[in-house]
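Below sits the subject:

***
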Amino acid sequence: MEPTQAGQVVVIGSGLIGRSWAMVFAGGGFKVKLYDVVQQQITSALEYIRKEMKELEKSGMLKGTLNAEKQLSFISGCIDLKTAVDGAMFIQGLLADPLMFGSEMPFPQRFIGDSHIRRLETVL
């Protein structure tokens, strides 16, 4: 099934907060790329999200109008930042260290100029 909303959302970080954001955006009908620097972290996050969405659906608390399987089909993981943000309309990130991506330029400033990014949300 195709996402019900246009555009792709990228969630930077697949920890507890990133996982929650991914579920919120998927529940809203958006395609979501979950980015992290460690593949195992992404794999764990996707497993957690699957389990959590199934439990929420079972208890009648799943957000959105789509069932868990449809929402889960909107979420994927990526370990390459450039690939993750390609085509994104929104980036949601919670970064403890703005230079964590190995650049002298803080993360937000590296992507603000890209015309395909309509909004970038970070907490530094």
Notes: The longest strand covers residues 88-94.
